[in-house]
Amino acid sequence: MRTKYTRVLLKLSGESLMGHQGYGIDKERLSSYAEQIKNIVAGGVQVAIVIGGGNIFRGLSGAAKGFDRVMGDQMGMLATVINSLALCSALTNIGQTARVFTAINMFPIGEQYSKWKAIDALKRREVAIIAGGTGNPFFTTDTGSALRAVEVEADVMLKGTRVDGIYTADPEKDPTATKFSEITYDEIYNRGLRVMDLTATALCKENHMPIVVFDMDTPGNLAKVIDGEPIGTLVY
Question: Are 140 and 200 in contact (CB under 8 A)?
């Protein structure tokens, strides 16, 4: 099977893992993600994954409630580790080998991340799930995703969300919002669109890392993106 991409970094939203629960991890949503990921690995694609932690704890919201910002961000990092372990378990249960790497030393929960170990895992057709963000406070998992995408030399960063692309405004709030099929990094900045934080966008731009924003919650969409079908929005 010929695909458009050979190696991808898939960024998954922690909030999406909630499904319709409002908190935590929805088993059906997790299983759907695992099946979609296994499917593209079977097609020859090397997959690295970064998952957010917003379904459990978000550092910024914690700071707003009185938590120390550094400790709040560290709690958020731990939330990404929980989600990563859950996805690793779901993949393993359906016969897809996967490994969890952590940005900070958390052995034996996960192996400490290094570019070389992650790439070795990818070449062995293992899914490399990279948890803990960048390992530093004041950086989002979007920035962590951009960093890991560049480090593991991915062809593209795939940002799986609950929205089917980038719009002129929030389509859930503005019914007149129109979708972009393609958009430049600079236009995202100039329009003030909240696709990713500015640090992540700048990192992708400086390293010529394209981004595809698409709806991951619809089964089959991940394979369509890998095959080059024009769903979602390409950022270049």
Answer: yes
In this structure, the strands spanning 233-235 and 211-215 are antiparallel
Question: How long a stretch of residues is the chain?
Answer: 236
SS3 174: coil
- Asked whether 103 and 78 are in contact (CB, 8 A), the reply is no
Q: Is a pLDDT exceeding 80 seen at residue 2?
A: no
- In one-letter notation, the amino acid at residue 137 is P
Predicted confidence (pLDDT) per residue in 11-36, tens digit = 999 999 998 888 899 999 999 999 99
If one counts every other C-beta atom within 10 angstroms of the C-beta of residue 23, the result is 9
Q: What tokens were used for 225?
A: 């993106």
- DSSP state, residue 209: -
Strands 98-102 and 111-112: parallel
Taking the model in full, what pTM does it have?
0.94
Asked if 79 and 56 count as a contact pair (C-beta separation under 8 A), the reply is yes
Count of beta carbons in the 10 Å neighbourhood of residue 175? 7
Adjacent-strand bridge partners of 9: 48, 157
Please choose, from the candidates 173, 128, 174, 168, the residue with its C-alpha nearest in 3D space to the C-alpha of residue 151. 128
The rounded distance, in Å, linking the Cα atoms of 26 and 198 is 30
Q: Do the Cβ atoms of 143 and 80 come closer than 8 Å?
A: no
**pLDDT higher for 22 or 216?**
216
Alpha helix locations (H) across the chain?
27-42, 59-64, 69-93, 115-123, 141-151, 185-191, 198-206, 221-226
